[in-house]
Amino acid sequence: MSTLLVPRSDVGEFRRRYKWMALFVLLAFGVVRISFAVNEQGKVVRLQVESNTANQSLESVTISAIRDAEIAPPPLDPSSPMGHEPLEWTINFTYYPIQ
User: Residue 39 class from Cβ within 10 Å (0-12 exposed, 13-18 middle, 19+ buried)?
Assistant: First the structure.
């Protein structure tokens, strides 16, 4: 067996370890601007892509990262004018390929 190939039993582990590395090959330089809100339970709501100068792969990775993030519920401040309104964010995700 070639040293470049992995045994069939290790294919699943290989895919788990290197799926992100393989995905980054597909990403293009650019910026994805995303807006979303975090509700009282720390859940992401109203996720929306506002602009994308990269490609669909970077947009998908960005959306997945936000949805998979473990966000703590925002602290409740009874004197806050926001009350129980969701905490709103707009973030630019910029990707620069490593040369």
Answer: middle
